[in-house]
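// run 5 | inverse folding | seed 20
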């Protein structure tokens, strides 16, 4: 198999510049670097990432551009995330395979190759940490907001199937927060109920109880307003399958009322 590693990551704007990360988020900064070290050790041929800020209406989009290049000014924070250059290779062949695998099971999965497309910051912030030298191809995937969690999980299963069958060493990353009732004030914690949900969900992942995590997700994603309605997590669970991976918890911090965990899932 060549799906070697999966990551759950976050992307609070404060992580754009390391020297601006506040004290209460230092555990995540360390987690980003642990995740980068894992990638460096593995030397993968490609990183596939789904972002909870790449939100699309009807289709599951897979970015098949041979090169991702541009300057990101984030719609959500045009003053703080402004004109950030990026340049990473893509993997057109694998991206096309991922979309085809979705179509194979009747899902509206679409590969696109559009040089004017600009990444979202949910993609860019983790990728800047994971691939600091810009030397590993990236494929970014959307969260399709008209897809149910079940459909999204199914797409994740198809992605996992393609990555396992690939001759390339692959890493899958999911970028998004868990609880996500945003409030003004970067240091604000999630509510006690939301934090309890985050803790339980993380515990299930660390214990390898992916079936229980999947059973919890529909109710939890509504109660805690999980980012992207829980779709970035549903895809991750679909990719992981049931038993092949051992999860390690790397860190958690709040950001404007959201709960931000980092985990690595290593093949057993
Ligand atoms: Fe976000």
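// decoded
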């Amino acid at each position: 198999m060549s799906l070697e590693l999966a990551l759950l990551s976050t992307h609070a704007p404060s992580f754009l510049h390391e020297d601006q990360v506040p004290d209460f988020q230092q555990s995540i900064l360390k987690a980003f670097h642990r995740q980068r070290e894992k990638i460096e050790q593995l030397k993968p041929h490609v990183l596939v990432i789904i972002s909870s800020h790449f939100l699309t209406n009807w289709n599951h989009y897979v970015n098949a551009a041979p090169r991702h290049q541009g300057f990101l000014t984030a719609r959500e924070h045009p003053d703080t995330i402004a004109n950030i250059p990026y340049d990473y290779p893509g993997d057109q062949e694998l991206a096309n395979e991922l979309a085809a695998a979705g179509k194979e099971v009747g899902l509206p999965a679409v590969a696109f190759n559009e040089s004017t497309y600009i990444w979202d910051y949910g993609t860019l912030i983790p990728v800047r940490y994971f691939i600091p030298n810009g030397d590993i191809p990236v494929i970014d995937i959307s969260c399709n907001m008209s897809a149910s969690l079940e459909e999204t999980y199914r797409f994740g299963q198809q992605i996992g199937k393609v990555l396992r069958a690939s001759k390339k060493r692959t890493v899958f990353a999911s970028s998004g927060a868990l609880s996500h009732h945003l409030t003004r004030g970067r240091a604000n914690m999630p509510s006690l109920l939301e934090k309890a949900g985050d803790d339980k969900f993380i515990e299930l992942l660390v214990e390898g109880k992916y079936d229980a995590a999947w059973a919890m997700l529909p109710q939890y994603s509504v109660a805690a307003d999980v980012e992207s309605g829980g779709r970035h997590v549903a895809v991750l669970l679909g990719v992981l399958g049931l038993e092949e991976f051992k999860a390690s918890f790397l860190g958690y911090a709040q950001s404007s009322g959201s709960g931000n965990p980092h985990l690595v899932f290593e093949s057993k």
